[in-house]
Structures are given as structure tokens and as C-alpha cells.
Amino acid sequence: MEEESGAAGEEWGHGPMAARAAASYLESTVTPAERFSMPTTTVSIATRARTWLFVAGLTALLIAAGALVGGAFLYVFVALAVLMNVGGYWFSDRLALAASRARPLGGTEAPGLQAAVAELAQRAGIPVPRLYLIPSEQPNAFATGRNPARSAVAVTHGLLERMPAEQVRAVVAHELGHIRNRDVLVASIAATIAGAIAAIANVVQFSFLFGGQDDEDQGPLGWLGALAALLLAPIAAMLLQLAVSRQREYLADATAARLLGGGRRLAEALETLERGTQVAPMAVNPAFASLYIANPLPRAGLATLFSTHPPIAERIRRLRGYDAVLAPQVA
After folding, report:
1. Catalytic residue positions?
2. pTM (predicted TM-score)
């Protein structure tokens, strides 16, 4: 993507000072050995490699669940793993948009939003994504699509109605950051596989409860394997999806800060989103919650420990740090 954006790189990147500030922002998302003089492009490649490894882990987990249950389940789960990855590649955007009940935004609707998207997409050196509107009062947004040419950005009605135009623009920059970083596909596939693992665990559970397996074919180890698959697979899937989501959110924040020429607007937008997501509930399939810029689900008790999003306060701190690094160089 960096080669494809060529001339646009100078415009969206705001020069080497912004690159150094963004690398500083991303310091804590990489290992100590990676931090020394590491440009943002290199961090982006490292982050993408990690996220694809996490998706590979989800796929392996799906197959391992079948192996633990035993019998024909192994072959079924292998087939499902292949189906989920192929289907996730081709249809993940449609699934995400359908799950959120999003509809295409008309050409004359929200002209300010459409102008901001067109401007920022040009600055980022990517095609203008399709725009969708989600019928929810909660301020939120997500990006989806298998590549920049086939990407889409969905925003809620609450985002357009409750947030200032500059903050909406910052949210859009964040979502375009996901598209430019090409991490939308991996997150969509991760969400699809994680949702499938949870659903399959439920199906297998009912199968055992209602006599789907012959007791004579299941020794003690077989039942222990089945129990482990039923209990641990959904938890492990959630943890892997959490790792995918947190990496990509930090990277998209840094990309948006470069695109906007500073992190202040996005930091302010995140503060507004934090309040708005807690006040206005939103019915979201938990498997797709990681796609949103802010966690759309209620956050209480253990849910905060297993959130697919980094803490908003930490994201804001890093964005403020981005500006702190950039300001002396500008002065």
C-alpha cells in the first residue's frame, strides 16, 4: 500500500516529523527490540503480521475443537475452518453491514460527511469508500471490506446527530486509517471465525445434551476433550480476537493522527464516544463489536477485562503524546 499511495504519502503523512511522532505513539505496541528507530511503516507491517498470526490461531483453534470432540466433528470443523476463511474473505463486509442493519447512504444525504470522507481519502491515497448509515442513536462507526478498493465505512445516526463536525471528521480519519493499513479484512475474518466458534460450541453442547454421541464411543478422555472444547474454545477465541482488535485500534489511531496533522481532534472525539456509548445502548452481535471505533457493548464487571478495545483513556494518552512529540519540532 505504501508504494501504491506514492505521491499521496507526502500529503497524508505531513512529513518526517509526523512519522517520528507516530512511531513514538506506537512504542508500547511493539517489543523493546522493535522500538529503536522504528518507522511507522515498519510498525504497520509488524502489526499486520501479528494480526494474521492471531487469525491463524483462530483457525487452528476451530480445527482443534473438532479434534478434541472427536469423531466426524474433526472433518466438519476442518471444512468449516476453510469455509470461514474463504467466506470471510469474500463476504465479511456484507455480513458486518447486515449484522448492523446498515443501509447505503444516499448521494444527497449528509453532504458534510461525504465531503470529509472524500477529502481524507484523497489525502490518505486510497479510493473513496462506500458509506452506510446504521439506525442507532449511539455515536459509533466501523470500516469493513477486503481491500481499499472494496471498502465501506458505516456510521451511526447518533454519530452524525450528537457529535461536532470536527470530531466526526476525526472518527472518519480513524476508519480510513483502518482501510489504509489494510487491517479491515483481518478483523472481519477474525470476527466471523470467533462468532462461528461460539455458535458451533453451542450446537455441540446441545448435541451432547440430547444424545448426539453414543456413550459407548466416548471414553473418559473423549468426554473430557468435548468438555474442554465446549468451555475453552469460545474463551480462547475471544482472547485471540481481543489481541487482533487492540493492535489494530492503536495503529489506526496513529494513522488518523498523521492524517489529521495532530491527535487532539481524535482524542476529543474518543472522549465524546466514551460518554455516548455508555448512555445510548446499541444491539450489536458481540462477534462484530471489535470492528467499531469504540466498544458498543455495555461495560461492567468481567466484561471490562475481556474488552476487544484498548482503554479509551490509554488511547487518549497516546494521542496527547503524539502532539507533545510533534509540537516542539513544529515550533
Report:
1. 175
2. 0.70
